[in-house]
Amino acid sequence: MGNGVKFVATCFEEHFKAIEELAARSEGFRDLCDDFATAKCEKLRWEQSSAPERDERIAEYRDLIDGMWIEIEQELERAAIKTPWR
Q1: Is 75 exposed, middle or buried (0-12, 13-18, 19+ CB in 10 A)?
Q2: Which residue of 8, 15, 48, 69 has the lowest C-beta tally within 10 Å?
Q3: What is the pLDDT at residue 85?
Q4: Which residues are within 8 A (CB) of 9 and not within 5 positions of it... i.e. 6 or more apart?
Q5: How many Å apart are CA 86 and CA 31, to the nearest integer?
Q6: Are 38 and 45 a contacting pair, CB within 8 Å?
Q7: Phi first, then psi: what are they for 39, rounded to 5°?
Q8: How many beta carbons lie within 10 A of that of residue 67, not counting itself?
Q9: Positions of the chain with pLDDT lower than 50, given as ranges
Q10: Contacts of 71 (CB under 8 A, 6+ apart)
Q11: DSSP string spanning 9-25?
Q12: Distance between CA 20 and CA 13 in Å, rounded?
């Protein structure tokens, strides 16, 4: 499991096994996980910044993260429909 996938698994702990299985078979999902982890790190970096564009960048990353959160949830729902996890 890559770092992005591990990070997403910590954010969606109740879906750990589903995330692991989906990541094993979907490069697109792995990429989404990597992008999500990167966006979270960049948001944290901007939160520590004193640059004039700080607030704007934080808002942009917050929107990006929220969108990816929804996309991850949707991917998990689609995977559960195709392959029951329980």
Answers
A1: buried
A2: 48
A3: 47
A4: 1, 15, 16, 19, 20
A5: 25
A6: no
A7: -60, -40
A8: 12
A9: 85-86
A10: 32
A11: HHHTGGGHHHHHHHHHH
A12: 11
